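Let us work through a complete example step by step.
Step 1: write down the sequence.
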Amino acid sequence: MYTIKDIEVFVLTHKRPEFLKETLDCFLSQSVKGFRLAVFSNGHSPETKQLLQSYAAQGVEDFYTDEELTSAQNWSRAIAAARGKLLVLAHDDDLIHPQYIENLLALFNRWPRLTLAISGCDEFRPALLQVPAFHRARHFTSAKEFAAFIYSGGNFAYPSSCYQTDFIKKAPPFLSDRFGKVCDVPFMIHACSDGEAAVTEFPFIQYRIHDGQDSHNYATGPTAWEWINLMLFYKEQLSTSPRLRWIFRLQNYRHLRLGWRDWTKCEYSRMSFTNFKQLALEQGALTRGNIWLGRLLRGKISHWLQQKILGIYPEKY
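Step 2: predict the structure and record it as tokens.
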């Protein structure tokens, strides 16, 4: 049985004190108290240092370094410092519902084999923090089922995911040389290997969109190669199961188009969508049969089929 003392919340930040304050206030306002709360900041600004000094009396620990680190490096040092049973790795620019930690405990006690629990995600709406949470989640008995859920367009929030500490310490580091800025999902799936995952239906995490986000800076990728590597990663995860292989087939062409439309904009001056598609075909990330299937079964029909194939629906916890 997990208790509140088993949870550590580590917030990663880099010179964003105006957002960090709101995130810390969210965690300090949780319906359950007694978990460890620490901030891992790098390239420490005077404003961030002053802010964290003001929170010291409330038990917020400050693991700062003046060194300028990449997000992956800061993430790694946070994982190395973890000593509890459960670790929440939070970003510094999100809003967290006050019942989130309470629900994480309920999830891990409902399904003791969980190695990863994450929230549904919603747009940035502070009023949602006042809405009582409901307790329904999808429970995946393998990392491959979890990968299929994400690949098929399932709603989830990468920030503030909660990991079983022993598992995340053994997970491979961010494979940014292979996936670039879209290396977060492969990391989560690797951290879930040999265990189970749960995703809440209620959106406990509100994802803030702002100018400083690297995910909206298309000059930094992902490149065409990085997106194709991501497609190959999903193929590797799903192709060993006859059931999940059909989810890959149904989603394969849509995932390529999604990558081109929303992510690989840095390639627009160098190649056309036709070139991108041909590269994916040559690398085995896409098949002509899947192109035909994706064009034939689109939208709600495809989504309904993928949900029926996966066969995992929200249940009470």
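Step 3: interpret the result. The mean pLDDT is 93.
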